[in-house]
Every structure is written in C-alpha cells, then in structure tokens.
Amino acid sequence: MNERAATVVGAGVVSPAGSTVDDLWSIVLEAKGTRAEAVHYPELGDELPVLTCLAEGFEPEQRLERHEIRRLDRSHQMAFWAADDALGAASTSPPPERCAVVVGIGFGAAGFQEAQQRAFSERGYRALSPLSIPVVMPNSIAAHLSMRYGYRGPSITVAAACASGAMALGEAMWLLRSGRADRVVAGGVDALATLGVSASFARMEAMSTRFDEPERSSRPFDLDRDGFVLAEGAAFFVLERNLDAGPGLGQILGYATNSDAHHIVAPPERGEGAAACMRSALTDAGIDVDDVGHVNAHGTSTQRNDLAEARAIHDVFGPRA
To answer: What CA dihedral angle connects 128, 129, 134 and 138, to 10 degrees?
Structure first.
C-alpha cells in the first residue's frame, strides 16, 4: 500500500456531457461530442456570435433551496450539485475538524458579478445585492462548501487559470499526506458562458469561429484547430488518506506544480515547463513513464498551446506519445 497516495472515495460532476458520473463516463466511452451552440449577444453584434457549451441535466431547482438559486452564482450551484453527489458516494465522515475543502476556480462568480455591474449602471446603488462581495470574492465557493457540510478543517481556494481544478486535487493530496486532514472535498468549477467572459475571450481570438459546424468546432491537436469552445462545469472528489480509505474508486499517487516564467498566456515553444512538471509528478508518485497509460491533456485547440503541449508530452514519454 502506498502510504503517500490519496484514495478517491466519491465523485460528482456537472458537465456538457451529463451531470452524473455515469452519464459523463458513457459519453467518454462512446466518444460522443457535446452540444455546442452559437450564441448571439446583442452587445457583440450579429456578426460576432460566440460558441458555448452548457451543462446537460443540471437543473438547480431539482435539488437546491430557493435562496441558493436566488442569492448565489451558477458556479456555486454547480459546485453544490457535484460535491453533494461526491459525498453521497462516500463513507461515514471523519470528525469535522479533520475534514477540509479545496476548490479550484478560474473566474468564480462571473455571471453574478456581471449582473451586479449591470444593475448598478442601470438602476444605481440601491439595486446592488448586499451579498455582492460574499458571493464574488474568490474564496466564496470553498467557504460555502465548508459551511454546507460543517467542515472545520482548512478551506482553500486555488486560482491558477486552466490548471485550477487539477491543482486543487494535488493540494488536497498534500493536506492528507501532511496529516492536516483525513478527508478533503476537492475539485474545480466555473460557469463562464457570460457576456463579459465571452467578449473577452473573443477579443483575444482564442475561441473557435467554426460557427457552421459547432458540433465539430473543438479540435485539440488537429491541424485545422482554431481555438476552444467556452463551456461550464464542475467536478468534485472526496479524497481520504490511503491508510483509511480502502480500495475506493482510484488513487492519486503524485503531484507537482511549477511555472515556466515565460508569458501570461502563451507557453514556451517546446513546453519545457510542462515537461519538467510532469517529470516531477512522476518522481513524486514513485512511478516510471512506462507505468502511464493515459495523459489528460490541456488540449485548448489553440495553435501555440497544442503544439507546445504535444512536444512536452513527447519529450517526457518518447515514442509512446
């Protein structure tokens, strides 16, 4: 038994491929696409639609209280849904002082914040919600999950753009290794199909413009790739120390994080930072490249990222890549 590993004892998801683990997994096994659609925002003009991909099967009113729907952001609601499912599959909980929460976010409550800005601009100060700050502050989702489950251990937010969810799992494993927690609810969430976020990514020219084939618009590692599709989702896991958890759903063996110190959005040409990070993770896990059967790629479908990432994976895994 690897005493440094973390065991996954529960999982929950909200995604464009379904909002149960079984639904998502069946889509993966069948290699089906998800439903992307071209959305027209009047503020952007008809000549500039935006491709978005919304969660399937996610109906907040089926599970959440009215005040949770009215007062919180969609990202909070998706986190509650996925984390509730993850905990529903887990065993009896350790004492609340030994339970922690780690949440990865890219933007957090983007929709709520944009709505408050519109209300303020159109109707003035009195139109603002008195809960604006508690909802949009970066640690809000982690804090709400801690309160929801009565967990009094560490409550941590990881904000590292696209790496946030993966890093949340790694930081959770480190909490378990260090003995600071016996259970961690960890995962990532973002609800980014909003006017402001859509316009900002469109201005960067980072999103696909294949509006005539939205179902085939996201093409990671394809020669004809032209950007990603904006989406939303949440995935949460319940992690426990390997000594306590039994076989579970799987294990997290190792983790590493670094920075290539190169550019705020563009990777170095050969992806040296990513390659170094993967090697460090393998060392931390105590495994060799030949033990790895799958690499879950970033795969943004952008020209620079996919090329650099493919080179990094090949540099680490060689011909098997």
So the answer is: -50
Decide: 213 and 130 in contact? Cβ < 8 Å: no
Q: Got the DSSP string for 88-153?
A: HTS-SPPPGGGEEEEEEESSSSHHHHHHHHHHHHHH-GGGS-TTHHHHHSTTHHHHHHHHHHT--S
Point out which residues pair with 142 in neighbouring strands.
none
Measure the CA–CA gap between 234 and 41, rounded to whole angstroms. 25
- Whole-number Å distance between alpha carbons of 34 and 23: 12
Q: Specify the DSSP element, H or E, that contains 306.
A: helix 303-317
Give the whole-angstrom CA distance, residue 4 versus residue 251: 10
The owner of tokens 């973390």 is 6
The predicted-structure confidence for 205-248, as pLDDT tens digits, reads as follows 999 999 888 888 989 999 999 999 999 999 999 999 876 657 78
Give the tens place of pLDDT for each residue, 97-135: 999 999 999 999 999 999 999 999 999 999 999 999 999
pLDDT digits (tens, 9 = 90+) for 54-68: 999 999 999 999 999
